[in-house]
Amino acid sequence: MKMMARCSALDIECAAICQLAAASMARGGEFASAICAVCADICEACGDECAKHSMAHCQDCAKACQRCAQECRKMSGQGAGARADAALGVHAH
Q1: Would you tell me how many other CB atoms lie within 10 Å of the CB of residue 63?
Q2: Which residues lie below 8 Å from residue 86, measured CB to CB, with a gap of 6+?
Q3: What does the DSSP 8-state code read for residue 2?
Q4: pLDDT tens, position by position, 29-38
Q5: What dihedral angle (degrees, nearest 10) is formed by the CA atoms of 72, 74, 80, 83?
Q6: How far apart (Å, rounded) are the C-alpha atoms in residues 68 and 19?
Q7: Which sign, positive or negative, has the C-alpha torsion 4, 76, 66, 68?
């Protein structure tokens, strides 16, 4: 279905970045925090897109993506407040 094209594409991107983030954290990678920050953004976008569709599997995916985004923000050192500050151009010292 054409309406599901973005959803499917984001699902693939989300799975790929989650795999990369998990592997980077497992090996203590130098860029694990940065990868987790990107992972959070992609998971959030995926969750937002999936939430637009009424099918149960899409709603389940949306919830899982939002939980993943929250955890990735924690791992990257970006809590909800840090993300809001970054959007406003405020830097923590």
Answers
A1: 13
A2: 78
A3: G
A4: 999 999 999 9
A5: -70
A6: 12
A7: positive
